[in-house]
Queue: 3 jobs
Job 1
Amino acid sequence: MQDSTIHLERTPKTTPGPIPRLAGGLRTKRADHVVHGAKTFIAALLTWVIVAPWSTAGRPYMAVATALLMVNASTVYQSVTKAAQNVVARVAGLVLALAAAQLLGPTAGAVAVIAIIAVLAGPRRTAEDRLQIASTAVIALAATTADPMGSLVSPALQTLTGAAVGIAVNALVLPPLYLSESDSAVRDLARSMGTLLHDMGTGLSRRQLTSKAHTWLHQARSLDERLTRAEEQVRQANESLRWNTRCVARTRRRETAFNDDDTFRALRGVSLQVRGIARTLADNAHDNHADHHLGHQFLDQYAETLQLAGAAVRTFAEPTPATNSPDTSPRERLRGAIDGTLAWHDTMTGMITRGTLTKPGAWHVYGSLMTDAERLLADLDRTDTH
C-alpha cells in the first residue's frame, strides 16, 4: 500500500506546468486567428468572383455577407444549420417586401406592416430570425417597386450562392476542431478536483478540519464553473466532428473526443460526491454537539481514502505516455489507487459494523462520508473498467 501511494504522489510532476500550458494556448489561438483570416479572405474573394458577373450592377454584397457568416461558423455542422436558417429568413423577408410593395408601395405604412408581421411571425422563430426577416424586407422594399421579380430572385440566388461557398470553404479548408480545448477543459477539471480531494485528506490528517472546512466547501462549490466550461467544450468538440472532413483520415480524433466525453461523465458524478464530502465536513466542523464530532481514528483513515481518491482523479489530468509500459500507464495507476482506496473503505466499513469506532453519536456523519466515498469510487471504477 505504501509503495502505491508513493508512486502516485510522483505522477503530478509529469503534468505540464501553468506557464507551458499558457504558452501553448497562445500559440494555438494565434494559429487559429491566421486560419480564420485566410478562410474569410478565400470565401469573400471566391464569392465575389462567382456572383459579380451576374449580380445587379456587379455588386454581390448579399452573397459575400452570407459567405462570411457561414465560413466563420464555429463548426461545419453549425455552418450548415445556420445557412438553412439564413436562407429561409432572407427569402421570407424578400417575399414579405414584395407583398408589402404590391399592396402599399414603398411607404411608411409598408414598413409598419413589415415590422408587425415580423414580430408576429410565430413563437417558434427566434428574435434573431425575426430581426433578419424584418431587416431584409425593409432593405428590399424600395427595390421591389422597380423590378419586383428581379428584386426577389437575385437576392435569393446571392444568398444561396454565398451560403454554398461559405460552407464549402469552412468544410474543406482546415475545418475547425475543438478537441484540444475539450481535452484541456477536462484535464483542468480533473486536476482541480483531484487537488481538492488531496488537500482535504492532508488537512484531515493534520487536524485542520475546523480551520479549513469552509475553505474546502467554497472550493468544491467553485468546481461548478469548471464543470460547466468542460461540459460546453466537450459538447462543442463532439459537434465539430460532425461532417468534418479532417476526421475521415484521422479516426483517432473521434476516439479522443469520445474518451473526453466518457471522462467528463465520470468527473461530473465525482464532483457531486466531492461537494457532498466537503459539505458534510463543514457541517461537522461547526456542530455544537460534542458527541457528533468525528473521532481521530476515523479521520486518519478517511484522510488516507481522500488522498488516494485524489490521486486516482488526477490520473485523468495526465497526458498519455508515449510508452505502453504498464509501469507508466495512467490506467494502471488509476487501478492501483482505486484498489488501495477500496481496501481502506472495507476497513472502515468493518469498524463501523463492529462498533469499534469512538464517538458513536457521529455514526450518521460516518455513514454520509462513507456513502459519498463509495459512490465516488464506483464512478471511477466504472470508468476504469470501460
Note: Residues 1-16, 321-328 have pLDDT under 50 and may be disordered.
Job 2
Amino acid sequence: MADQPVRSVSEFNTELKLKGFNVFQIDSDSNATRIYSRKDFYKICLTTGKSIIHYADRSFEANDTVLFFGNPHVPYSWETISTTYVGYTCLFSEDFLTLSDRSESLQNSPLFKLSGTPILTISPQQREFLNTIFKKMIEEQQTTYSYKDELIRNYIQLIIHEALKLEPSQNFDNHKNAASRITSGFLELLERQFPIETIDRPLQLTTAKHYATNLNVHVNYLNRAVNEITGRSTTAHISERVLSEAKALLQHTDWNIADIAYALGFEYPSYFNNFFKKFTGTNPRSFRLAEV
C-alpha cells in the first residue's frame, strides 16, 4: 500500500463526521488506535502486538492478534507495549451502519455491551481472512462507486458475524464485587466525556440518570454503589468534573460565557453562572479576568 499523507486529528475527525465511517491501516507502534477524538463512533480493531486493553472495569492483555470492538458508550483505553504494532482500524457511526433495515441496535450486540466480551483472540487463519476484509474496505473507501457505502456496511457486518462465531476470550480481570465494578465503569465513563473540544459538541451525560442509563443499571443502584465505594455521591463526582472543565475552558479558550455554558450542558447561561458561583464563590467572568 502506498504511503498516505499524514493528516491532523482535526482533519481526520472532520472527514469521519462527514462520511460516518473511516478505515485505515496501523503500520507502526503509533497512536493509530487512539488517533480519533470523536466519542460517538464505534470502533473495530484487528491488531497484532503486545498491549493491554482496559474496557469498563476489566483489563485484557493481548500478546498476539486480537479483534476488538469499541463502544462509544463504554469507557476503554489502550496501552501499547510492544515496539511493533500492526493491524487495521474501522470507525463508524451507528447511523451509518443501521441505514440498513436489517441492522439492529449495536448496543444490543454481545460484542458491544458493557457486560459483553469485546475482545477476541484471532488465529493466523482468521487473521488472514479478516485482513482481506479490511483491505477491501480501504480500497473501496477510495473509489467513486455509487454504492460503496452499502458495500462497506456489508463488510462491517461480515466482520461482526465472523466475530460472533468465535469463542469469546475469558482473560479478563474482574473487580471483586458489583459495586466496585459499576463504580469503576461510572468513573471511566465520566472521564471519557472530556475534554470538551468544540462548541458544537456539548456534554451529553450531565446527570446520574444519564450515566445509569448508559451503564444499564437503575439510577438508585448506581448512586448506592458510587457512594459505597468512594464515599461521595454520583452528582458530586459529576459536578466536580464539570467545574474542572469549566475552569479550563475559561482559562484556555476565547469562547464566550454563553458558549461555555451550552458546551457544558447547561440549558441557560444563568444556570451555569449559579452553578459556578455555588462552588467557587465567584462568577465565570470574574474568574476569567482574575486568571488573565
Note: Residues 234-252 form the longest helix (19 residues).
Job 3
Amino acid sequence: MFTNNQDGLELSTLMLINAAERRGIEVEILDLEDNFIRLKKGDKIEYVKQATRTSADTYIAPLMMENKEVTKVVLREKGIRVPAGIMVKSTTEAMAHYQEFRGKDIVVKPKSSNFGIGIVIHKNIQCEKCYQLAVNQAFTHDTSVLIEEFVPGKEYRFLVIDDEVVGILHRVPANVVGDGVHSIAALVVKKNQNPLRGKGYVSPLEKLRLDHTEIAFLSEQNKSIETIPEVGETVYLRENSNISTGGDSIDFTDAISADYKAIAVKAAQAVGAKICGADIIIQDLQKVPDDKNYSIIELNFNPALHIHNYPFVGENRHVDDKVLDLLGF
C-alpha cells in the first residue's frame, strides 16, 4: 500500500531504504536532496544514488545509455532493431533535411536526455515551422539533436536487473476520460486528486499538466482545455507515454513472451549495464520479434523502480529487493 512520502526522498529511494531495513541492513542518508544513501551490513558497505546508480555498473555504461546515438550504434551492431534517423548539430542542418522527413511520422529529441525531456513527436509532418520549433526545443537540452522515424506500436518499459527482466510496464500517455459534463481542464484537476499522483517522483504517478506541449497536442486534435469530451471518450494530452509526464502504468510482466525479454537483456548486456530500463515498441505481442514488429527506442541509465512496485494497474513486482540482491545483500 502506498503512503505519501513526507521525507522528500524520491519514492524509489524510499522503497530501497524500506526493503534494506527489512533485511536488517543499516541505512544512512548521506545527501537527502541527492537521494544518496549508504547501506551497511557487517563489513559490507554499498553506496547508492537515486536507487539505481550503484557500484554494480561501470562508469561508462550510464554514459553510453545517456548518449542516444552511441546507444543506437552499439545496439545495431548487436543485431537489435533501433529507429532509423539522423543526428544534427544545428537548426540550419536540421532544416536542410526537412524535405526528407516531410509527410512522415517523426520523433525529434536531444541526443542525451532522460525522462522524456525535450522529445517532440509529429505525425505526417507538413508544417515546416512546427518541425523547426521541435528542433529548437530539443536544442535547448543538448548541443546535438536526433531526428528519427516514429515507430508505430505500443511502448513497454522493460526493467533489467542483473541480466533478468524483473518488471514490464505498458505506459499509456497522459489522458483523461470524458463524462459528458466536465471540460478537459476540470477532468485534469479531478484526476490529479488521486493520492497516487504527485510531483517530483515522490509518488507512484506524476500529476497531469496542461502546459504548452499539452495545449499544442490538444490543438492538433481540434480540442482545447475547455472542450467537454463525450462520456467514455479518452482524450490524450501528450504523444509520449512517460510516467514523468503524467502517463499511466499497466503491468505486463507476465503477459510478454520470453523472446522479447531476451532482447531487453541482450540490449542491457550490449552496453554493459546491470541496471537498465529498455523502452521497446512492439506492434503485436502475439508475433515473434522481427525487424518490423519491434524496435528499441531508448535505454535508460537511471530507470525508476517505483513504477513497477506501484503500477496504475497490476501487481507489485518488488524490484527494490532485486537491487539489494544485485548488491550482494
Note: The chain has eleven helices and 16 strands.
